[in-house]
Amino acid sequence: MCFSFLDGVSARADDPRVARPQEGDRFVFPFGDREGQLITLEDLPLGGPQQLAYPMDPHTKTVRNGSTLNLISLIRFDPAQLTEETRELAARGVVAYSAICTHQGCPVSMWEAHAKNLFCACHATQFDPRDRARVVDGPAPRRLPMLPIKLVDGVLTVAGGFTGRVGGERPS
């Protein structure tokens, strides 16, 4: 199933659930038994796989789940495995990327364990999360946008906006 890059457009523009991640937001589990609970470093296995997440405003507790474009992949690596450019936007080896493919907006929710790559099952694009989610294989035209993060009092926190446009290719 692919997600449209227009997802959330019909929602009210002032709805905080559709707002893109904001500096200071924290990360929570998007579904399952721990839905809405804060994700900690201990929840992220070293070397992957990724943990999907939504950003949450720590003051209002609003989870920004009103748009699939806000779905994030968190992955923890040994910082020495990250390129310098990636390490600059990571927190203690944890990287955060849009979980929406840059090809056609499908969820990048699979993990290629041998290569430690993010994998989009729709059209088999692989992204290297240790190198700013560089396209390794497949039809995606560009990297996954990275979300800068930092640790604040031991909590993974958004440190800035995405490094690029989130979502798939726009129709001509």
* General form: globular
Summed up, the helix count is 1
The order of strands across the largest sheet is 1-2-3-4
The total tally of domains equals 1
CA-based gyration radius: 15 Å
Q: Count all strands and give the number.
A: 10
CATH class descriptor: Mainly Beta
How far the N terminus sits from the C terminus, by CA atoms, comes to 21 Å
What does this structure look like?
The protein has one domain (26-158): Rieske Iron-sulfur Protein, CATH 2.102.10.10. The longest helix is centred in the middle third of the chain and has 4 residues, at 84-87. With 172 residues, the chain is an all-beta fold. Residues 1-10 have low confidence and may be disordered. The protein is globular and about 40 Å long. The strands form three sheets. The protein has a four-stranded antiparallel sheet with strand order 1-2-3-4, with no helix packed on it. The chain is built from one helix and ten strands.
Set out the fold topology.
Elements: E1 26-28, E2 51-56, E3 72-76, H1 84-87, E4 94-98, E5 110-112, E6 117-120, E7 125-128, E8 134-137, E9 149-152, E10 155-158
Antiparallel strand pairs: 1-2, 2-3, 3-4, 5-6, 6-7, 7-8, 9-10
